Amino acid sequence: KTQLCHTLCVTSQLPISNGGAEGMALYIDTENTFRPERLRAIAQRYGLDPDVVLENVACARAYNSDHQNELLIQASAMMSEQRFGLIIVDSATALYRTDYQGRNELAARQVSLGKFLRTLQNIAEEFGVAVVITNQVVANVD
Fold it and tell me: In 3-state terms, what secondary structure has residue 64?
């Protein structure tokens, strides 16, 4: 899933005529999986300058679910100043699962996650950016 996200960070910078979004990418990293060296290799595959590609990717590491929500406020400010074509959240629920543990916190977790997703949707609509969210699948809701 992370490889796909890295590829999208590069291809979103392509011209619209080539299937891109002609914009920067925002990568919200919740699991410390962002690897600039992977973007360099992908950029070369597409014939793009790796340094320029990396300059056009804003990566933010989220450390807890509150911070993840705060990053969207910062993202909105950045998008009002520069053209972004893509927001990636890799992985959307990882921090919520660690911040809200057990069935007794399930409702609070769902409320907080719902707020995050609504804010993300509002940003996508306001700035016309595509959003990609990855997630982990588990059998146990705890």
Answer: coil
The span from the first CA to the last CA of the chain, in angstroms, equals 23
Pairing mode of beta strands 57-61, 84-90: unpaired
User: How far, in Å, CA of 44 to CA of 131, rounded?
Assistant: 24
Residue with tokens 């700035």: 127
Look-up of token digits 């056009």: 56
pLDDT digits 0-9 by tens, 17-62: 999 999 999 999 999 999 999 999 999 999 999 999 999 999 999 9
Amino acid at 108: A
In angstroms, what is the C-alpha Rg of the chain?
A: 16
Predicted TM-score of the model (pTM): 0.91
* CA–CA separation, 11 and 23 (whole Å): 10
